[in-house]
Design a protein that fits this description.
- The protein is mainly alpha-helical.
- It contains 4 helices and no strands.
- The protein is elongated.
- The two termini are 26 Å apart.
Protein backbone atom coordinates (compact mmCIF):
# COMPACT_ATOMS: atom_id res chain seq x y z
CA UNK A 1 0.00 0.00 0.00
CA UNK A 2 1.21 3.45 -0.78
CA UNK A 3 2.68 5.27 2.20
CA UNK A 4 0.62 8.39 1.42
CA UNK A 5 -2.62 6.46 1.69
CA UNK A 6 -1.69 5.09 5.11
CA UNK A 7 -0.72 8.58 6.24
CA UNK A 8 -4.09 9.80 4.99
CA UNK A 9 -5.83 7.03 6.93
CA UNK A 10 -3.84 7.84 10.07
CA UNK A 11 -4.90 11.47 9.76
CA UNK A 12 -8.49 10.29 9.32
CA UNK A 13 -8.20 8.28 12.54
CA UNK A 14 -7.00 11.35 14.41
CA UNK A 15 -9.83 13.39 12.91
CA UNK A 16 -12.30 10.74 14.04
CA UNK A 17 -10.94 10.84 17.58
CA UNK A 18 -10.99 14.62 18.01
CA UNK A 19 -14.79 15.13 17.83
CA UNK A 20 -15.39 12.28 20.26
CA UNK A 21 -12.88 13.84 22.64
CA UNK A 22 -14.70 17.15 22.29
CA UNK A 23 -17.99 15.40 23.03
CA UNK A 24 -16.45 13.81 26.11
CA UNK A 25 -15.15 17.14 27.35
CA UNK A 26 -18.07 19.41 26.54
CA UNK A 27 -21.23 17.36 26.00
CA UNK A 28 -20.96 14.60 28.59
CA UNK A 29 -21.11 16.99 31.57
CA UNK A 30 -24.18 18.66 30.06
CA UNK A 31 -25.87 15.32 29.49
CA UNK A 32 -25.08 14.24 33.04
CA UNK A 33 -26.47 17.48 34.47
CA UNK A 34 -29.53 17.16 32.26
CA UNK A 35 -30.14 13.62 33.45
CA UNK A 36 -29.87 14.86 37.04
CA UNK A 37 -32.54 17.46 36.25
CA UNK A 38 -34.79 14.83 34.68
CA UNK A 39 -34.44 12.45 37.62
CA UNK A 40 -34.16 14.65 40.72
CA UNK A 41 -35.19 11.79 43.01
CA UNK A 42 -32.22 9.64 41.88
CA UNK A 43 -29.23 11.42 43.37
CA UNK A 44 -26.52 9.28 41.82
CA UNK A 45 -27.81 9.39 38.22
CA UNK A 46 -25.46 12.23 37.30
CA UNK A 47 -22.39 10.24 38.27
CA UNK A 48 -23.77 7.09 36.71
CA UNK A 49 -24.17 8.88 33.38
CA UNK A 50 -20.66 10.33 33.70
CA UNK A 51 -19.14 6.93 34.33
CA UNK A 52 -21.25 5.23 31.68
CA UNK A 53 -20.36 7.63 28.88
CA UNK A 54 -16.68 7.85 29.77
CA UNK A 55 -16.36 4.07 30.08
CA UNK A 56 -17.81 3.67 26.60
CA UNK A 57 -15.17 6.05 25.26
CA UNK A 58 -12.34 3.80 26.47
CA UNK A 59 -12.93 0.93 24.01
CA UNK A 60 -13.51 3.47 21.24
CA UNK A 61 -10.09 5.02 21.72
CA UNK A 62 -8.47 1.62 22.18
CA UNK A 63 -9.95 0.55 18.83
CA UNK A 64 -8.61 3.72 17.22
CA UNK A 65 -5.20 2.94 18.67
CA UNK A 66 -5.37 -0.60 17.29
CA UNK A 67 -6.34 0.74 13.87
CA UNK A 68 -3.38 3.11 14.05
CA UNK A 69 -1.11 0.16 14.89
CA UNK A 70 -2.59 -1.81 12.00
CA UNK A 71 -1.74 1.01 9.61
CA UNK A 72 1.78 1.11 11.05
CA UNK A 73 2.14 -2.61 10.35
CA UNK A 74 1.05 -1.97 6.79
CA UNK A 75 3.70 0.75 6.50
CA UNK A 76 6.36 -1.67 7.73
CA UNK A 77 5.22 -4.39 5.28
CA UNK A 78 4.01 -6.52 8.19
CA UNK A 79 0.40 -6.53 7.08
CA UNK A 80 0.36 -10.31 6.76
CA UNK A 81 1.45 -11.10 10.28
CA UNK A 82 -0.03 -12.27 13.52
CA UNK A 83 0.22 -8.73 14.84
CA UNK A 84 -2.31 -7.55 12.28
CA UNK A 85 -4.65 -10.40 13.13
CA UNK A 86 -4.38 -9.51 16.82
CA UNK A 87 -5.09 -5.83 16.09
CA UNK A 88 -8.21 -6.77 14.13
CA UNK A 89 -9.30 -9.09 16.93
CA UNK A 90 -8.92 -6.25 19.44
CA UNK A 91 -10.92 -3.91 17.20
CA UNK A 92 -13.65 -6.54 16.99
CA UNK A 93 -13.78 -6.95 20.76
CA UNK A 94 -13.87 -3.18 21.29
CA UNK A 95 -16.79 -2.82 18.89
CA UNK A 96 -18.69 -5.60 20.61
CA UNK A 97 -17.95 -4.02 23.99
CA UNK A 98 -19.30 -0.67 22.86
CA UNK A 99 -22.46 -2.37 21.58
CA UNK A 100 -22.94 -4.21 24.86
CA UNK A 101 -22.46 -1.04 26.91
CA UNK A 102 -24.96 0.91 24.85
CA UNK A 103 -27.44 -1.96 24.80
CA UNK A 104 -27.19 -2.10 28.59
CA UNK A 105 -27.76 1.65 28.75
CA UNK A 106 -30.80 1.67 26.48
CA UNK A 107 -33.27 1.57 29.39
CA UNK A 108 -31.81 4.86 30.63
CA UNK A 109 -32.11 6.28 27.11
CA UNK A 110 -35.71 5.10 27.05
CA UNK A 111 -36.52 6.75 30.37
CA UNK A 112 -34.91 10.01 29.27
CA UNK A 113 -36.85 9.90 26.01
CA UNK A 114 -40.12 9.24 27.84
CA UNK A 115 -39.67 12.07 30.29
CA UNK A 116 -38.38 14.57 27.75
CA UNK A 117 -40.62 13.31 24.92
CA UNK A 118 -37.62 13.01 22.60
CA UNK A 119 -37.57 9.69 20.73
CA UNK A 120 -34.39 10.75 18.92
CA UNK A 121 -32.39 9.75 21.98
CA UNK A 122 -33.39 6.13 21.45
CA UNK A 123 -32.52 6.33 17.77
CA UNK A 124 -29.05 7.67 18.59
CA UNK A 125 -28.47 4.77 20.96
CA UNK A 126 -29.64 2.25 18.37
CA UNK A 127 -27.43 3.78 15.68
CA UNK A 128 -24.39 3.48 17.94
CA UNK A 129 -25.24 -0.14 18.74
CA UNK A 130 -25.75 -1.17 15.12
CA UNK A 131 -22.74 0.78 13.82
CA UNK A 132 -20.54 -0.91 16.40
CA UNK A 133 -21.89 -4.31 15.44
CA UNK A 134 -21.23 -3.62 11.76
CA UNK A 135 -17.65 -2.69 12.62
CA UNK A 136 -17.31 -5.86 14.71
CA UNK A 137 -18.58 -8.07 11.88
CA UNK A 138 -16.35 -6.32 9.36
CA UNK A 139 -13.31 -6.71 11.62
CA UNK A 140 -14.15 -10.39 12.17
CA UNK A 141 -14.38 -11.01 8.43
CA UNK A 142 -11.11 -9.20 7.80
CA UNK A 143 -9.48 -11.09 10.65
CA UNK A 144 -10.53 -14.43 9.20
CA UNK A 145 -9.45 -13.49 5.68
CA UNK A 146 -6.10 -12.22 6.92
CA UNK A 147 -5.53 -15.35 8.95
CA UNK A 148 -6.29 -17.54 5.94
CA UNK A 149 -3.99 -15.43 3.76
CA UNK A 150 -1.20 -15.82 6.32
CA UNK A 151 -1.74 -19.58 6.35
CA UNK A 152 -1.61 -19.75 2.55
CA UNK A 153 1.50 -17.58 2.51
CA UNK A 154 3.25 -19.78 5.06
CA UNK A 155 2.34 -22.91 3.06
CA UNK A 156 3.75 -21.34 -0.09
CA UNK A 157 6.93 -20.34 1.73
CA UNK A 158 7.41 -23.92 2.92
CA UNK A 159 6.92 -25.48 -0.52
CA UNK A 160 9.83 -23.60 -2.06
Amino acid sequence: MNRMSTIFLKIALVLIGIPILALCIFLVPKVANYSAELFPNIAYIKYLVFIYLYVTAIPFYFALYQAFKLLSYIDKNKAFSGLSVRALKNIKYCAVTISIFYAAGMPVFYLMAEIDDAPGIIVIGLVIIFASMVIAVFAAVLQKLLKEAIDIKSENDLTV
